[in-house]
Automatic annotation (TrEMBL):
Annotated source species: Sedimenticola thiotaurini
Pfam families: DUF364
SUPFAM superfamilies: Dhaf3308-like
Domain Putative heavy-metal chelation: 179-306
Lineage start: Bacteria, Pseudomonadati, Pseudomonadota, Gammaproteobacteria, Chromatiales
Recorded superkingdom: Bacteria
Protein name from the UniProt record: Putative heavy-metal chelation domain-containing protein
Length: 328
């Protein structure tokens, strides 16, 4: 049960004049800096240059920080307006909770707070007014709370760029993968609702979990702490916590291009180019379409699903960051 105290808000109140949270309305017809942005289909980007190449000298998070530096030089990115946290510290293994980084233009980036120490660590932060790119560059920091909060900022920046360029991920139309009957599914991180659905459909499940105590003894899965076990799977679903603890490259190397990997969950809502370039076949995300509703739902202790919609992107329906930048 959630506390009746309402969500923790770390930052400036959206009612103050220094914060300009832009309401995001149905079908994402959005005004940014006073100009309407029309959402474009992937076909309208078809003449644009290809996405980002892989720099073999960088791991994924280093490449993200390099891209952030470029975006920060190219664009005027909105600062952090506030950070929304669940009102009570999650109990690891009992709930999957998320916080949200809200930028001054209303762009929102979710991040996972149910890793040990993350909620408590983030609750001590006071990042309102900070440059969003500066905050996002903490991805992969030794402290999980710093890295989780940075991922939220990265996701918010990705949502901001999509909005400014007129790209609507909710209308992207990614192709859903069909799982062969009896296919073994690998999960990086224990995600109980997904495990239950997969088992109900007859799929054997291998779970890679660095905190094996999070997995109930009667979960019905093959539990391992080493990503090497993923090599026996037919498909791998990976939560975005691997971007917080900087294990994404280890996971991808374990699959070695033989096993398709999808990144799932709300906190994979950033720019997916660098993941696609490294072999990830699909990325899920969350588009918050009503920031005020998000606050209300958190304060009421209710699910925030009504404040936005989930989406999925794959390389066939993602135009690429270069194409988005060309639209500005």
């Amino acid at each position: 049960m959630r506390s009746s105290l309402g969500p923790l808000r770390l930052g400036r109140s959206p009612s103050r004049s220094t914060v300009s949270v832009v309401p995001v309305i149905s079908r994402l017809v959005i005004r940014y800096m006073g100009s309407p942005c029309r959402c474009l289909s992937v076909r309208e980007y078809s003449s644009q240059p290809p996405s980002l190449p892989v720099n073999p000298a960088m791991n994924t998070l280093q490449a993200c920080r390099d891209l952030l530096q470029r975006l920060d030089r190219t664009l005027t990115l909105p600062a952090v307006a506030e950070i929304l946290l669940p009102p009570r510290e999650p109990v690891p293994g009992e709930s999957d909770d998320f916080g949200f980084v809200v930028l001054e233009d209303g762009s929102v980036g979710p991040f996972y707070v149910s890793l040990p120490g993350v909620w408590r660590g983030v609750s001590r932060h006071r990042e309102a007014g900070m440059e969003s790119a500066r905050l996002a560059r903490r991805m992969g920091a030794p402290e999980l709370a710093d890295s989780a909060l940075a991922l939220g900022a990265w996701n918010a920046i990705g949502q901001h760029l999509m909005t400014r360029a007129g790209f609507d991920p909710l209308q992207a139309g990614a192709t859903k993968a069909t799982l062969p009957e009896g296919a073994r599914i690998g999960l990086v991180g224990y995600f109980r609702p997904l495990v239950e659905r997969l088992l109900a459909r007859g799929h054997p499940v291998t779970v890679i979990e660095r905190q094996p105590q999070r997995v109930p003894a009667d979960a019905g899965v093959d539990l391992d702490t080493s990503p090497a076990a993923l090599a026996t799977c037919d498909r791998v679903f990976c939560t975005a916590s691997v971007l917080i603890n900087d294990t994404v490259d280890e996971i991808l190397e374990s699959c070695a291009g033989r096993v398709p990997v999808e990144l799932i969950g709300p906190s994979a809502s950033g720019l997916p180019d660098l993941l696609f370039a490294r072999g990830v076949v699909a990325v899920g995300g969350l588009r918050i379409t009503d920031v005020e509703r998000l606050r209300q739902l958190q304060e009421a202790g209710e699910s925030w699903g009504a404040a936005g919609s989930k989406y999925q992107l794959d390389p066939s329906c993602w135009p690429g960051v270069e194409a988005l930048l060309q639209r500005l």
